[in-house]
Amino acid sequence: MKGGTVSFLFVLLISPSPPFSASVMGNFVNAGMLPNGDFELGPKPSDMKGTQVINKNAIPSWELTGFVEYIKSGQKQGDMLLVVPAGKFAVRLGNEASIKQRLNVTKGMYYSLTFSAARTCAQDERLNISVAPDSGVIPIQTVYSSSGWDLYAWAFQAESNVAEIVIHNPGEEEDPACGPLIDGVAIKALYPPRPTNKNILKNGGFEEGPYLLPNSTTGVLIPPFIEDDHSPLPAWMIESLKAVKYVDVEHFSVPQGRRAVELVAGKERKRDRSGG
Ligand SMILES: *[C@@H]1O[C@H](CO)[C@@H](O)[C@H](O)[C@H]1NC(C)=O
Ligand SMILES: *[C@@H]1O[C@H](CO)[C@@H](O)[C@H](O)[C@H]1NC(C)=O
Ligand SMILES: *[C@@H]1O[C@H](CO)[C@@H](O)[C@H](O)[C@H]1NC(C)=O
């Protein structure tokens, strides 16, 4: 068994009333990688200039904006060897670059997105993930895993039957090659849990939560979203300043059931927002 102490701290219970009934959920079973969510299908050589993708539709299932690079595992950046978590390929988002995918969903339903991200340069890298009208900015400055790649979760409620998922790098760094790497974008429909006669806390065992990539041993970080309406961990809201980690029994010590929440400590690079 790997992993640290399982803890239930720093999470505040909220109790939203379920906004829809079971009947409108439909039979939309959706948990897994998005189409080409691992970017294994790549651009044709004629759509590339070095590592840069120069045709916005060159990566199947995705639409690109701005300076997007197609990264192969083992590729070097300076003296750093880039490794990729899902398959052999990933993308890197330069300044103001984004990747977008349209997906059929069920209107009114809650979904959680899970994706891998890695920071490449020393800057304060962030990602803005959105499905209109919801959006959330995830700081990826703190690195929790030894590989440099962390999994993040973010949730939204589908406003229509099509979700336009956008992952955007709002950065404005001098070096356009400094930007987050993205890989393994997955989705899971969330079913707001109800209290049971065994546990009056909703989702008290954290069994309902974001998608965990089957091969990932690191768990999924759930960042605190101050203005977030929708939690990837139904019925719970992250109140700490730091992310909490959602873990599975396959890779961590979980006292009850299959899922738990762990308080984590990450490696912080020095950062002074006041600029001093
Ligand atoms: C998404 O929904 C539209 C309209 O219902 C349908 O035409 C299309 O085939 C669907 N796409 C996928 C990938 O299921
Ligand atoms: C994130 O992206 C959404 C959608 O483009 C936008 O509405 C929102 O203002 C962005 N947030 C930040 C902090 O840039
Ligand atoms: C998970 O690992 C197994 C064995 O290494 C591999 O065959 C499989 O393709 C991996 N799955 C994903 C989604 O990466």
UniProtKB/TrEMBL annotation:
Location relative to the cell: Secreted, Cell wall
Record InterPro entries: DGR2-like_dom, Galactose-bd-like_sf, Pectin_Meth_Modulator
Organism domain of life: Eukaryota
Keyword Glycoprotein: yes
SUPFAM superfamilies: Galactose-binding domain-like
Domain (DUF642): residue spans on this chain: 32-188
Residues forming coiled coils: none
Keywords, ordered alphabetically: Cell wall, Glycoprotein, Secreted, Signal
Gene3D superfamilies in UniProt: Galactose-binding domain-like (2.60.120.260)
Annotated signal peptide: 1-22
Family annotation (Pfam families): DUF642 (PF04862)
Descriptive protein name: DUF642 domain-containing protein
The organism of origin for this protein: Brassica napus (Rape)
